[in-house]
Structures are given as C-alpha cells and as structure tokens.
C-alpha cells in the first residue's frame, strides 16, 4: 500500500480521523480494563499510514483531530439518517447472509467463503441506524461483565441450551452467566490456561511468561472465555469465530467486553501483518487443518512470531480411534515439514513451536511441500489478499536476530521494536510518537473521566 499522499485531502483527513478514532477507542477500552497500562500493536500498514499522517511532518496530528472533529460536528446530514426497521436489528454490513442469498453470489461453502466479507454495491446499502433490541439495558461493566450480561441485550438463548452441558453459558433470570467453561475446558478457562503455562514450564504457571507472551489469537473462540480469562494475566487475545449455525458467539464475547471479531479462516488472509502473535490457540475449533495443502495452518504460521506457539486441544491430539490417529499422523508430518516442533504434549493438548530462524527451512530436501513463499510475496499485505499455501521465511535480518527482539510487556509499550527499521522508522520517531500519544490519551482521559473513575 502506498503512503496515501496521492489521495485527495478529504480522503486523507477521513482516514486519519478513522485511525485516530479507532486508536482512541482502543486506548479507552484498554485503560478501562487494565489498571494504567495500555497496548497498541500497529500492523505495518497502519504504521505506514500513521507515518504519512504525522511522522511525515506535513501536518500536525492535533490540528487534524481538531479539524475533523469540527467536520463531524457540523455535519447535519448525520441527523437525518433514519432508524432501520426491527428486522435489521442484527444487520452486519458486508457479513449479511440475506445479501448473499439475494445476489446469488457463487461462493464455495466448503472453503467457508460465505463467512467472509462481501459488501453490497452502494445501491443496496441500508444507510440506516441499527436499532437496539427491545428493552435494551446499559451493559454490565467490566470486570463483572466477564461473568454475566443482560439477556435482553442478546436475545439468543438457544446457544445456552445447546451448550449447557459444557458450561459455556447459563440463563439465570434476566441475565446470562458465563461459568468460564468451554467445549474443551468444562472446568474453567483459568485452570486450562494455567495448565498450558505449566506445559511450557513458565514460572508460576503464568502464561504471560514474565511479559514475553502478550498477544494471542484464538480461532473458533466460542464465547471467548479463553480470551476473557487471559486479560487478568496481562495477555490480550483477539478471538475470532464465524457467524455460523451458533450465530451470535461474537455478540456474547463483545457484550462481555472481550475483544473479538467475526472472521473465518477461509480463503483470505486474516487482517494482521505477519509475525503478530505469540500464541495461536484452537480448542475444538473444528477446522480441517489438512485441507488444501495445509493452507490454513500456513496462515497461522504467517501470523506467528519467531518462536511463537500453537496450542491445539482437539481429539486428533489424543483420541485413539482410527480416524483421529490418521489425522494426527498427517498433521504431525505436515508441521514437521513446516519446521514446527512439539514443545509439549500432555493430556488432550499439544503445543507446537515455530522456529526462530530459517535454518530448518534451508535444510529441507529440495521440492519439500509446502514450499517457501516467493520472494515477491509481501507477508504483510492482507486486506482482501488470498491465503497462499506457502511458508513465509524470515528476512536475513530477522534470521540473524533469532527472535523478535521485543521487550517484555509492559516495557514493550514504550520500547522501539527492531522491526520498525524495516519500514524506515527510527527509535527517535518511535519515541516522538509515544510522547504524542501519551499526551493525547492524557487529554482524552481528562475529558472523559470524571474524578470517580481512576
Ligand atoms: C481548534 O479549532 C478551534 C476553532 O477553529 C480553535 O479556536 C482552537 O484553537 C483549535 N484547537 C487546536 C488544539 O488547534
Ligand atoms: C519442561 O521441563 C521438563 C523437565 O525439566 C523438560 O523435560 C521439558 O522439555 C521442558 N519443556 C519445555 C517446553 O521447555
Ligand atoms: C494430565 O496428565 C498428567 C500426567 O501426564 C496427570 O497427572 C493429570 O492428572 C492429567 N490431568 C487431567 C486433567 O487429566
């Protein structure tokens, strides 16, 4: 993606405003749940975009904010947007199944394409405000919301009855409560998380490994209890699940206050640059990892940092019937060719670890599948980019560094990551950026927080 200088001023300001707004939301959100620390990991693209808006020096960020703020305030058109009728109270633009039926898009269901984004042409957009469900209540605040939400805010209780034996969620009067169970961890996500940390020999069975493990991707996350229970260990998990037969899993996660989004491992890359996560997790996520030459596992590989882990809790990892044994054998062979090693295997969970360098890739027999990605493949190009069944090798520089060189959390927040050099940013620019944001967040915080909520 280019630096966006060619775009019109309008577009640029709009983009800047969106970036500023989402980062502000992120900050507020993180501050509200984390006593005094906040985390923002930018992808390379947003970094570039941010860079062009103020590190480039052609305009001052505060000024931009001020201008855009006026624009939105002065925009009378906003007031005339009607409310959608109640049938659309759960409309999610670009993830609207009715649209797919109506427009007869030819999508490959076996590749989960129907769970990926498909945006309507402008004439078919609704341009109306989504109404809340009848009786909507102000959501319960974090941290209580991890364990209970108002039933009336998410009027879908069939998941509760379907999963009642697994302790996902229970309807209790006007609330839905979440005992912290999952398909795989009936006895609670906290014990499960501690057991994973124990398998990796992390001190005090704390999965954050003294700050070295901070970012987690949970695929097929259910109601995101895994991610919810990681927050208290200072680990931030992005949980994803498709809008499938269980429909509103993500709605529950978000109502609880756990970061999550509707997404699927289908045909397009997930919207994160390469080497974004320290741990990927799947417990009974019912993904066929062997399909299409292991393309989905290779997408996880792209997303994992050097030395990153994939924790996999699924019958294939332990069950002894013929079918599961066959899958286990094939998966083991595939990940071995991908140079992953078993870090630990116990009970019903296996944890693989991704290599730190290119050494193992170089030692593979010529012609070994999956192949390495071509050198012109940009592993950080993600928006609408099809997944590829290839391994993303490290650059020479990363290969020599034998790891990410990231500081442990929370020092990571203010320590320039070595990767910045790849995009031509210096430590000084990072420090300047950090100060700008500290200043802004303080300002927002002054505006937003009355004396009683520190
Ligand atoms: C924002 O705009 C207003 C009106 O033009 C101006 O008075 C104010 O000084 C500006 N604030 C900043 C921080 O630039
Ligand atoms: C954890 O410690 C045990 C016993 O010392 C050792 O056998 C095992 O390899 C270690 N596992 C990891 C992932 O470091
Ligand atoms: C897991 O395995 C260990 C030994 O391998 C055993 O002591 C422990 O009881 C098992 N835990 C569960 C929950 O099955």
UniProtKB/TrEMBL annotation:
Transmembrane segments: 14-32
Native organism taxonomy: Eukaryota, Viridiplantae, Streptophyta, Embryophyta, Tracheophyta
Keyword Ion transport: no
Keyword Transferase (UniProt): yes
UniProtKB keywords: Glycoprotein, Golgi apparatus, Membrane, Methyltransferase, Signal-anchor, Transferase, Transmembrane, Transmembrane helix
Source organism of the structure: Salix koriyanagi
GO molecular function term, any single one: methyltransferase activity
PANTHER family: METHYLTRANSFERASE PMT8-RELATED, SAM-DEPENDENT METHYLTRANSFERASE
Family listed: Belongs to the methyltransferase superfamily.
Bilayer topology term: Single-pass type II membrane protein
Enzyme kind, highest EC tier: transferase
E.C. no: 2.1.1.-
Gene Ontology BP, a term: methylation
Descriptive protein name: Methyltransferase
UniProt superkingdom: Eukaryota
């Amino acid at each position: 993606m280019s630096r966006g200088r060619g775009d019109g001023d309008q577009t640029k300001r709009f983009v800047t405003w969106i970036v500023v707004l989402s980062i502000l939301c992120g900050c507020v959100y993180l501050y509200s749940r984390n006593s005094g620390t906040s985390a923002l990991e930018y992808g390379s693209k947003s970094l570039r975009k941010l860079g062009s808006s103020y590190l480039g020096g052609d305009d001052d960020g505060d000024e931009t904010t001020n201008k855009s703020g006026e624009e939105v305030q002065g925009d009378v058109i906003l007031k005339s947007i009607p409310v959608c009728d109640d049938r659309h109270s759960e409309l999610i633009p670009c993830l609207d199944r009715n649209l797919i039926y109506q427009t007869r898009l030819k999508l490959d269901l076996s590749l989960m394409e129907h769970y990926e984004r498909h945006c309507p042409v402008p004439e078919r957009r609704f341009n109306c405000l989504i109404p809340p469900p009848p009786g909507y209540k102000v959501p319960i605040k974090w941290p209580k919301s991890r364990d209970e939400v108002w039933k009336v805010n998410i009027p879908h209780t069939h998941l509760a009855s379907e999963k009642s034996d697994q302790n996902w969620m229970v309807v209790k009067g006007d609330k839905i409560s979440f005992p912290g169970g999952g398909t795989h961890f009936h006895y609670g996500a906290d014990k499960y998380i501690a057991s994973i940390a124990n398998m990796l020999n992390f001190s005090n069975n704390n999965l954050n490994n003294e700050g070295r493990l901070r970012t987690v991707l949970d695929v097929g996350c259910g109601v995101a209890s895994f991610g919810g229970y990681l927050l208290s260990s200072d680990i931030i998990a992005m949980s994803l699940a498709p809008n499938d037969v269980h429909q509103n899993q993500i709605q529950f996660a978000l109502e609880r206050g756990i970061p999550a989004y509707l997404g699927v491992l289908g045909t397009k890359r997930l919207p994160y640059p390469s080497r974004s996560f320290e741990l990927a997790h799947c417990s009974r996520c019912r993904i066929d990892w062997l399909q299409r030459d292991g393309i989905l596992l290779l997408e996880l590989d792209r997303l994992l940092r050097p030395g990153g882990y994939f924790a996999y809790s699924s019958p294939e990892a332990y069950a002894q019937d013929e079918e599961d044994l066959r899958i286990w054998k094939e998966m083991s062979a595939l990940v071995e060719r991908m140079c992953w090693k078993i870090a630990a295997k116990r009970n019903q969970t296996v944890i693989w670890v991704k290599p730190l360098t290119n050494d193992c890739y170089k030692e593979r027999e010529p012609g070994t599948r999956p192949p390495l990605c071509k050198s012109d493949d940009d592993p950080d190009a993600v928006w609408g980019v099809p997944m590829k069944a290839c391994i993303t090798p490290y650059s020479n520089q990363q290969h020599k560094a034998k790891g990410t060189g990231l500081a442990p959390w929370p020092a990571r927040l203010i320590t320039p990551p070595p990767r910045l050099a790849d995009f031509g940013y210096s430590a000084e620019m990072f420090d300047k950026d950090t100060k700008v944001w500290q200043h802004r967040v303080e300002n927002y915080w002054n505006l937003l927080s009355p004396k009683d909520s520190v």
